[in-house]
Amino acid sequence: QETINQIAAGEVIERPSSVVKELMENAIDAGATAVTIEIRDGGTSLIRITDNGCGIPKEEIPLAFLRHATSKISRVEDLLTVSSLGFRGEALSSIAAVAQVELITRTEHSLTGARYCIEGGEEKSLQEIGAPAGTTFLVRNLFYNTPARRKFLKSPNTEGNYIIALVERMALSHPEVSVRLLVNGQNRLHTAGNHKLKDIIYTVYGRELTKELLPVQADFPKIHLEGYVGKPLVSRGNRTYENYYINGRYIKSELITKAIEAAYHGFVMQHKYPFTVLHLSVDPELLDVNVHPTKMELRFREEDAIYQAVYDSLRTAITGEEL
Length: 323
Ligand code: ADP
Ligand code: MG
What we know:
Blueprint: H1 2-6, H2 16-29, E1 34-40, E2 46-51, H3 61-64, H4 91-97, E3 100-106, E4 113-119, E5 122-129, E6 134-140, H5 147-151, H6 156-173, E7 178-183, E8 186-190, H7 197-205, H8 207-210, E9 213-220, E10 223-230, E11 235-236, E12 242-246, E13 249-250, H9 254-263, E14 273-274, E15 276-282, E16 287-291, E17 296-300, H10 303-319
Parallel strand pairs: 1-7, 12-15
Antiparallel strand pairs: 1-2, 2-6, 3-4, 3-6, 4-5, 7-8, 9-10, 10-15, 11-14, 12-13, 16-17
Helix pairs in contact: 2-6, 9-10
The chain binds adenosine-5'-diphosphate (ADP) and magnesium ion.
């Protein structure tokens, strides 16, 4: 209850990419090693997500669709540990409220699976069926019952591009998970799930960029960094290529952006920004989280230590010298 009070309730689902984000996080939380995402019409008519995770026992399905039904955390401080991405127990209920949802799932040890249909928050059916182990969600006609929100969406092409960018980030943040994305039946992304971050960068950004990467790996008290950064030559006119993940989450932080750009100072021209894919593992006791329904604001308890860790390890990578 305390936790729920600390978490502001509100709208979780803004657009098709929000559905994909929540369902992919659930799949990863369920221990999936492979996740397939299929979208039609920018996700407005269909989003299908299949995982090979732990599945949901039939008797627990209706419960999972209740607001604030989560078994994942008991303390807000647990939010930024690597153990789970979901925490609010709001995603399934929010999605089911504004779409036609079909769920097919089976746990590893159950002989039969289950199929559950819920539309506009109204339960339609729950029956036993044969199914592979894991979970498939089909989300059809998002916002079919809320025309005002449907009207607010951009073109299917633009919504589709948001989803592609999101899935790429999810793939980059979870090198241990094989991620496959199909857009209108066309293969758009497929990562191996072999833990090799460089392979994923290659898959997402292509060969040219991948040739120009410098590895980063560094340990500091309570902070571990690893990933790749672009040679100073590979810089862009905007920040879209500054990727970093904190404990497996894509989170924006002014402090980290500043540290990255300071490390490149003198190496890239003004108004140019480096390419980075950095994974920061930070002891949760250094983090202070302020939770909103759709985003997380992050503050660091020891700002100087984080800044210096990022700065030093990037500077070492760029100059090739230990500081
Ligand atoms: P949260 O992720 O915050 O716990 P959600 O509404 O996203 O809340 O999901 C509710 C619950 O449904 C989860 O806690 C989990 O037990 C179950 N669940 C959802 N998706 C999956 C999945 N793909 N595989 C296994 N269990 C799932
Ligand atoms: Mg969730």
